[in-house]
Structures are given as structure tokens and as C-alpha cells.
């Protein structure tokens, strides 16, 4: 089998969430961070013939880049990664899935209290602002009929900040949901974002069957 560019992009993103990955038989990819505060699920074009573990996902992706147009042939204990000519190949052994971090159950998203659209350009601006200002928090709060995304610091009331309004709606006009920006490890693209006052959020990619559930900071407030 060959991996599409979209699947490779997801795998590269998953490597930033968790360094290891269990790839299950079929067309569903899932990962969860070691801290259990980021979970993702994706339906991909390909169907894997068996379940196997990858201990170092970045290494696995690096191996794929060693050959042109890599083709994967799955054996009992390893996968053969070869090029289109058959001249070069890599034997890559599976890791024990019992030793790797995997999601143990499906996430049941509570009722949504705030929803908004987050396009890739806006997320890029947020991350650049965080880098420029040296802040680690993204605050989601009301701004008239829109939703305001603000890069700032809760610990410093006079901190410089960056804000941008996005299209959205909410069930209350009093809320301040806080993300740790380092947890926004989502693949490129545009997303529909749902936030619950139970301090869990869901990011749904607008162009593919790719979802993330990301925990919010406990300092978030709702209805106060």
C-alpha cells in the first residue's frame, strides 16, 4: 500500500502529540498525548491490513522518506518499505502495542456552550503572536455578537496582548475559556470549534474527517 499526502500530514501531526502510535487494522487513526489532555481521531483513505505499534513515529516517518514513492508491504512482525523500482527497501519491525499509549475509550462531548470557526490563517496569527509576546495562553471570550481570541497572560494584568474576533455564538455572554497554546497541536486547515463549560473542546476539520478533543485550563470561567 501507499500512503496519501493527507495521511502523511496527519501522521506528522500525530508525532507532535505523542511520539508513539498504535495503528489499528482498518481506516481509523487515533492518538492521545501522554498527559491525556489531547486526543485525536481521523478517518483516512487507506485501510491498514493489521494492527501494529510504532515506538518512534518521527523515526518511522524519516524511514518513509528514505525511499522514493514508498510502498508498504506488511508482514507478521515487520513492514517492508520499498521504492517503486524495487531496488531499495527497509525492514522496519513493529513495537509491542501493550507498551504504547493508546486512547482507552471514545470521548462523549458534553453540551456545547461556545462555538466558532477557526481558519488556518487565524491560528497561524495566534501562534505567531504567542511567540512574539512570549505568552502561553489563548483566552476565548465574548465580543459583541462575535467571539474574541486573545493571546495574553492571566498572571499579568498589564501584559501586552493580541486579539482577533472570529465568527461564532455562545449560550452565555459571560465566559473566559483558556487554552494552553502548546496544546493546540492540530493539523493544517480550517476547523469548527466547540467548547463546553465542562472544560473540554472539540476541533472538527472542515475538509476532512479529522477531529481533536483538547482540554481547557482549570482557570477558565463560565457564567461568572
Concise structural overview:
With 224 residues, this protein is an alpha+beta fold.
General description of the model:
The protein contains three helices and 17 strands. With 224 residues, it is of the alpha+beta class. The protein has two domains: 5-99, Proliferating Cell Nuclear Antigen (Box), CATH 3.70.10.10; 114-222, Box (Proliferating Cell Nuclear Antigen). A seven-stranded antiparallel beta sheet has the order 2-3-16-15-14-8-12. It has a five-stranded antiparallel beta sheet with strand order 11-10-9-13-17. It has a three-stranded antiparallel beta sheet with strand order 5-6-7, with helices on one face. It is elongated and about 60 Å long. The N and C termini lie far apart (53 Å).
In terms of topology, how is this protein built?
Layout: H1 5-17, E1 21-23, E2 26-32, E3 38-48, E4 52-54, H2 57-64, E5 71-74, E6 78-82, E7 89-93, E8 114-118, H3 120-133, E9 137-143, E10 146-152, E11 162-166, E12 168-170, E13 175-180, E14 191-196, E15 200-205, E16 210-215, E17 221-222
Antiparallel strand pairs: 1-4, 2-3, 3-16, 5-6, 6-7, 8-12, 8-14, 9-10, 9-13, 10-11, 13-17, 14-15, 15-16
Amino acid at each position: 500500500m501507499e500512503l496519501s499526502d493527507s495521511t502523511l500530514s496527519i501522521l506528522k501531526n500525530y508525532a507532535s502529540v505523542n511520539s508513539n502510535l498504535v495503528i489499528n487494522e482498518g481506516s481509523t487513526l487515533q492518538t492521545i498525548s501522554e498527559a491525556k489532555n489531547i486526543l485525536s481521531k481521523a478517518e483516512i483513505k487507506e485501510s491498514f491490513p493489521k494492527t501494529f505499534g510504532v515506538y518512534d513515529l518521527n523515526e518511522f516517518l524519516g524511514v518513509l522518506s528514505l525511499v522514493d514513492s514508498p510502498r508498504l508491504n506488511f508482514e507478521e512482525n515487520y513492514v517492508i518499505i520499498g521504492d517503486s523500482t524495487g531496488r531499495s527497501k527497509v525492514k522496519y519491525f513493529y513495537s509491542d502495542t501493550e507498551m504504547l499509549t493508546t486512547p482507552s475509550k471514545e470521548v462523549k462531548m458534553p453540551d456545547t456552550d461556545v462555538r466558532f470557526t477557526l481558519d488556518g490563517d487565524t491560528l497561524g496569527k495566534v501562534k505567531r503572536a504567542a511567540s512574539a509576546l512570549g505568552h502561553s495562553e489563548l483566552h476565548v471570550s465574548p465580543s459583541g455578537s462575535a467571539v474574541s481570541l486573545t493571546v495574553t497572560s492571566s498572571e499579568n494584568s498589564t501584559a501586552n496582548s493580541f486579539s482577533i474576533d472570529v465568527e461564532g455564538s455562545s449560550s452565555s455572554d459571560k465566559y473566559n475559556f483558556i487554552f494552553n497554546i502548546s496544546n493546540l497541536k492540530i493539523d493544517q486547515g480550517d476547523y469548527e470549534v466547540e467548547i463546553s463549560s465542562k472544560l473540554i473542546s472539540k476541533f472538527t476539520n472542515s475538509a476532512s474527517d479529522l477531529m481533536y478533543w483538547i482540554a481547557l485550563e482549570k482557570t477558565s470561567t463560565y457564567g461568572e
